[in-house]
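Q: What structure does this chain adopt?
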Amino acid sequence: MQNRMKNHPLTEEQIATLLTKAPVGRIATIGPDGYPYIVPMHFVYYNKTIYTHCLPKGQKSDYISKNKKVGFEVDEMLGLLYDNIEIPCDTNTIFNSVIISGNANMIVDLNEKREILNKFVDKYTPHLSKKALPENIVKG
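A:
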């Protein structure tokens, strides 16, 4: 763990707030060559769980099907600390971040999928929240 994280950990409330409001998170999977594959994604934080969505076929889905271990990260830059700094490398940044390691699982239950997809609609396109999701999207 980085020294800053040890000395300035976020509270559970701050973590939940950042995970709720952050528009983009980054998921890291492990490729068959053993190297990480990191991609920015829309996500929702609901019931203390991170939900992302992707197509049933693709690099990310393929990697997760072979190795469920993933990393997930969100951050927000709050500002730069450069007043009275004379040496460029002494500049610092104020930011909050959440870094999570865990296992990814695909949701197969259609009712659960619908519920989570509606959470995506609520977060990213709230003006469409009252519209029904197309069944082919829920099944995909």
